[in-house]
Amino acid sequence: MEQPFTNPGDSAQYSSVPLTTTPASPNALCSQALEILPIEPAGSAKCFTTITLTFDNQHIGVFSSDTLYKNSKLKANEGQMLNTVERRSEIVKLIESTGNVKVKELAEKFNISTVTIRNDLNDLSRTGLLVRARGGAIASGRLAKELTINEKHKKNHKVKVALGRYTASLIQNDDAIILDSGTTAEEVANHLNDKENLIVMTNGLNIAYQLAPIEGCEVFMIGGQLRKKSMSFYGPDTEKKLEYYNFNKVILGVDGIDLSRGLSTHYEPEAVFNRVMCQSAEQIIVVTDSSKFGRRSLHSIIPITSIDILVTDTNLDKESQDEIHRLGIDLHLVDVG
């Protein structure tokens, strides 16, 4: 059997490159070769003029390295090459909407090898975001589905009002706070009308709208790119601005809270921004209804032990309550009737 390539800096040709799986399509074949080879354009130090691809000792085809390189650049320019985090995020979104995914179909969709897709599914399975099944994966009951802001308003509305009212009571006159953009945080904003000399910074358009009529509240909006699904702003400039502020408290809502994996959300820029919010505040207050417990989203925010005060409803199971107390977190249970 011919040996695969050895030194990428040699000027010699590759004699043979064994592929790990049968490519599902010509694009997948090129993608799999590009994952194996350090391809660079013709004339460069690492350019190999001819590449022979094999699978299970069977000849598949001969390609010029420059052709493969141009193929890879073309796909990148067309936005078809996603990094690992982006690809896995798309897989999670797909399984949310369809309930299941197939390895071969994902390999064709993302123009990568089935081996890479299996690795993606295995890693996502280990974090509880899906369940591996024969030939693919199915949705996990622990996966938190992302809702639009209008859908969130309708879900557990009575509970959110009670949680918002109670959390507002933890905010004092003269406080400087950061208020998250979620619908539970919106209910907090709705109950701040009796406060005086309050400073509130938020990235939520919905939050700013609720706070605008309150006389004793000075509102700061953080700019950036508006994400219409959540009516909130994100971006690197937004995060940078927070480094120049100091706040007493941050009020944070979440899509998922897991006692072993911490807080999480669906949208990576939101996770990054929430993390910076927490770093800018002396006290982290998380407010969420009990239905969010035991659920995970793709992007982690902070570990559970970073929370100072956790506000939720009395429907939270006793086992979770005991674990939260054991971790030294100040747990506030609100009776929602």
Walkthrough of the structure:
By secondary structure, the chain is an alpha/beta fold. The chain has 3 domains: 61 residues, no CATH class; 56 residues, Arc Repressor Mutant, subunit A, CATH 1.10.10.10; 186 residues, Rossmann fold, CATH 3.40.50.1360. The chain is 36% helix and 23% strand. The strands form 5 sheets. The chain has a 7-stranded parallel beta sheet with strand order 9-8-7-12-15-17-18, with helices on both faces. 37% of the residues are buried.
Briefly summarize what is shown.
This protein is of the alpha/beta class. Helix content is 36%, strand content 23%.
Q: Percent of residues in beta strands?
A: 15-25%
Instruction: Name the helicity range.
Output: 25-40%
Mean pLDDT score: 77
Q: Find the structural class using helix and strand composition.
A: alpha/beta
CATH architecture of the largest domain: 3-Layer(aba) Sandwich
Number of helices in the DSSP assignment: 12
What's the Cα radius of gyration?
A: 25 Å
Biggest sheet layout: 7 strands, parallel
Side by side, the strands of the main sheet go 9-8-7-12-15-17-18
Gross morphology? globular
Helix-strand string: EHEEHHEHHEEHHEHEHEEEHEEEHEEEHE
Distance between the termini: 73 Å
Number of strands: 18
Low-confidence stretches: 1-17, 19-27, 38-49, 65-80
- Count of the separate structural domains: 3
Write the layout of secondary structure elements.
Blueprint: E1 17-18, H1 26-36, E2 51-55, E3 58-63, H2 65-77, H3 84-98, E4 100-102, H4 103-110, H5 114-126, E5 130-133, E6 136-139, H6 149-154, H7 157-168, E7 176-179, H8 183-189, E8 198-202, H9 205-211, E9 217-221, E10 225-227, E11 232-234, H10 236-242, E12 247-252, E13 256-258, E14 262-265, H11 268-279, E15 281-287, E16 299-300, E17 309-313, H12 318-326, E18 330-334
Parallel strand pairs: 1-2, 7-8, 7-12, 8-9, 12-15, 15-17, 17-18
Antiparallel strand pairs: 2-3, 4-6, 5-6, 10-11, 13-14, 14-16
Helix pairs in contact: 1-2, 4-5, 7-8, 8-9
